[in-house]
Amino acid sequence: MADENTKIQLVEESVSIAKERVVTGRVRISTSSNSVEELTHATLAGVRVEVTREPVDREVDAIPQLRVEGDTTIIPIVKEIVVVEKRLLLVEEIRIRQIATSEDVTIPVTLRKQTATVERIEE
Fold this sequence. Notes:
Structural class: mainly beta
Number of domains: 1
Number of helices: 0
Strand content: over 45%
Strand order of the largest sheet: 1-4-3-2
Mean pLDDT: 85
Number of strands: 4
Order of helices and strands: EEEE
Distance between the termini: 72 Å
């Protein structure tokens, strides 16, 4: 019968991995820029104002209010005149009319475009 204190020796293997960096090739990258003239189209919107003066020469009891009729703003102009009594005389009205305008324009612009060239270098 075997001895109860018999020892069995175990063997263990281990592995280790090492990495090595290896250059397999090289590349050269270059870029170039080109300027290209292109025509750009745009629509410019605006408002043109036309001012006219229309004589009225009419007596009024009170100062008329500024008013808007359609696309025309009417600004009353009054002056006081001295008679035996003081009265208001509507001298003129300034009429401001808004006229919408639109204009198509073509504007040359310079655009830059860049390209890249990749070239493999053999060793």
